[in-house]
Design goal:
single chain; mainly alpha; 3-stranded antiparallel β-sheet; 10 helices; 6% strand
């Protein structure tokens, strides 16, 4: 039996939970997670692993943390440049890479990684859907108006989804009637797409005073400040952009906010701990 919740790992587990909760609080309050917060988790986790390795004469405990760091460095950059994560989210998952190799057996570590990633992606999707529904409730009239607009704009998505729907419906009718419900995924896609676009346009665009802008905020549209064009982009406002806007622009700015994604990491990490307690990794 492999027990990953042991005395050596207990400090790492507590460290991760505290840092994830701290990141969530920052994300909910300011829509950003401080770089120093993420970097300090890396420093504390690797320092702890190093000292444990020295005293136990087992340097794999430290090396596992380094290997996890580099694996999640690649994963974090993949999610960031794939535009799934913002910068703070990517740095947090990189930092958690120093925590997650909780076993000396790498087959088990890869299982932990897989469960964590699936946990925060699936759990995060459910969480984002719930958050979006709450936004719709509080902005219902705006959402309905926007949904009608987006439906007309993307109505051809609904038309194009009919052909694969009918083909799969016919296929499952002759092959496996129990799987016929899978055909409706093709009809669900345009509905969810238009829903997401409508939530974004009606509930996540806000006018913000320049003194409340922060580095990384997403402009809703390109901004012209004293003849200079500041483009909206995935990376958000840079320090130079923010300074120019605050110094030279004296009107409110349209900013697009996303759903704070850091709670998804807590979902994924708690799933790992739950399955570990049930000895699922064996």
């Amino acid at each position: 039996m492999v027990n990953i919740i042991n005395n050596e790992n207990l400090f790492l587990i507590l460290l991760a939970v505290v840092w994830i909760i701290g990141a969530i609080l920052q994300d909910l309050r300011r829509r950003e997670v401080d770089n120093i917060w993420n970097f300090s988790l890396i420093a504390f986790a690797l320092s702890y692993r190093f000292f444990v390795s020295v005293f136990s004469d087992n340097y794999w405990f430290f090396l596992n943390g380094l290997i996890g760091f580099f694996i999640f460095l690649a994963l974090g950059n993949l999610f960031y440049y794939g535009r799934l994560f913002a910068g703070g989210d990517a740095k947090l998952i990189i930092a958690l890479g120093t925590i997650l190799p909780l076993s000396s057996e790498w087959i088990i570590n890869f299982k932990i990684f897989l469960i964590f990633v699936v946990g925060f992606l699936v759990g995060g999707s459910i969480y984002v859907l719930i958050w979006s529904l709450v936004l719709v409730i509080f902005n219902f009239r705006k959402f309905v108006r926007e949904y009608k607009k987006q439906f007309l704009r993307y109505k051809y998505y609904f038309v194009f989804s009919l052909l694969p729907f009918l083909l799969f419906l016919l296929f499952f009718y002759f092959v496996d009637l129990n799987m016929i419900f899978a055909s409706f995924i093709f009809l669900l896609f345009p509905i969810l797409f238009v829903f997401a676009r409508s939530v974004e346009e009606s509930c996540m665009i806000k006018k913000v005073s320049t003194n409340k802008l922060t580095i990384g905020d997403w402009l809703y549209e390109d901004l012209y400040v004293k003849g200079k064009k500041i483009k909206k982009n995935w990376e958000g406002l840079s320090y130079q952009d923010l300074k120019l806007i605050r110094d030279k622009y004296h009107r409110k700015v349209l900013v697009k906010y996303g759903v704070p994604f850091t709670p998804s990491f807590l979902i994924g990490f708690l799933l790992v701990l739950y399955l570990a307690s049930k000895a699922i990794f064996l």
